[in-house]
Design a protein that fits this description.
By secondary structure, the chain is mainly beta. It has one domain: Calycin beta-barrel core domain (Lipocalin, Beta Barrel), CATH 2.40.128. The protein is 3% helix and 46% strand. The strands form 2 sheets. A 10-stranded antiparallel beta barrel has the order 1-2-4-5-8-9-11-13-14-15. It has a two-stranded antiparallel ribbon with strand order 6-7. The protein starts with 39 loop residues before the first strand and ends in a 6-residue tail after the last strand.
């Protein structure tokens, strides 16, 4: 069979050119408000004290653990907004960051790796919450944290920004009768020169002074040579009444205990974070915090205090 010269199949309709893809409009980053300065990686050193319960057969009901710490704290932006559906007011749209905190003891080495011994790991979220009308609450920030010991917390509070460095208060590790901070109960372990088998000893106390035990926040003195241009302060609490409504703690069955009382309930968490911008820096580059957790056991509230000074780390390379 021969083809007719010049013959070719033709489309029944003219071809329609494929349009070039239209790029999606750029999505603006979420407005994090006071939390914006947290974004990135931070590293530094700090101090930790915790009264741990011990079984009375050991000769004491408590052990004072003391740690000089090394810390890494990373914050990443949560893309987009986070909706809360409202019944008595319109829907609420929050923004936030997720974080991972890792703390090690600088004085104690892991025998297997030779690295600092791990103390604490904590994944969590910080949220920026708009003004609400039900209840009537101003714009707030909230921290949601999960602690592997068996505790979760929601701590909510307020943010503010001011010129200069932070005003750091004093804090005390002295226990007190549950519900009565005005009834302190001191123990020999709080005095370093007092001998005790129920307190960290030896190499574990390297770098620890009596002033640090008297006021752990003394570790947060302004870093040498650092002049602070401005500070954003985040103050949050798990207490359901102050500084704003909302918040609380939850503990596993072991921590809550049975009819005889708790093993060690994390009853309350109060924390202050100071996001600081040093003079000459365009963005926040210094982060300090002080956190007090009240552990309730054997009729007393035992303050567990953690503080740190962290510096902003450069972005990781490709």
């Amino acid at each position: 069979m021969e083809l007719v010269p010049g013959f070719a199949f033709q489309p029944t309709t003219p071809p329609v050119p494929t349009p070039a893809p239209v790029p999606a409009p750029a999505v603006p980053p979420p407005d994090l408000g006071a939390l914006q300065g947290l974004v990135g990686s931070w590293a530094g050193a700090g101090f930790n004290t915790i009264w741990r319960p011990t079984q009375p057969a050991t000769g004491s009901d408590r052990f004072l653990e003391i740690n000089v710490t090394a810390e890494n704290l990373e914050f990443e932006v949560i893309p987009g907004t986070i909706p809360n559906r409202g019944l008595l007011q319109g829907d609420l749209f929050m923004t936030g960051v997720r974080y991972l905190q890792q703390i090690s003891d600088s004085n104690v080495k892991d025998p297997a790796t030779g690295q600092d011994s791990g103390l604490h790991i904590e994944p969590g979220l910080w949220l920026s919450v708009p003004v609400t009308t039900n209840p009537t609450v101003p714009a707030t920030v909230a921290r949601l944290a999960s602690i592997p010991h068996g505790t979760t917390i929601i701590a909510q509070g307020l943010a503010s920004t001011a010129a200069g460095g932070p005003a750091v208060p004093t804090v005390s590790i002295t226990p007190f009768a549950i519900g009565n901070p005005g009834a302190p109960v001191t123990f020999p372990e709080q005095t370093l020169v007092a001998q005790s088998n129920f307190r960290t000893s030896g190499v574990g106390l390297t770098g620890v002074t009596q002033a640090m035990l008297d006021n752990p926040n003394s570790v947060l003195a302004a870093p040498a040579g650092q002049a602070i241009a401005n500070t954003t302060t985040l103050v949050v609490s798990s207490d359901a009444t102050t500084p704003v409504l909302g918040g609380g703690t939850a503990n596993t069955a072991f921590l809550q205990g049975g009819p005889g009382g708790p093993n060690a309930v994390a009853a309350r968490v109060d924390a202050t974070f100071w996001i600081q911008t040093t003079k000459g820096s365009a963005t926040p580059d210094l982060l300090q915090y002080s956190q007090v957790v009240l552990l309730n056991f054997n009729g007393l509230s035992w303050p567990h205090i953690t503080v740190a000074t962290l510096k902003k780390q450069p972005p990781a390379g490709p």
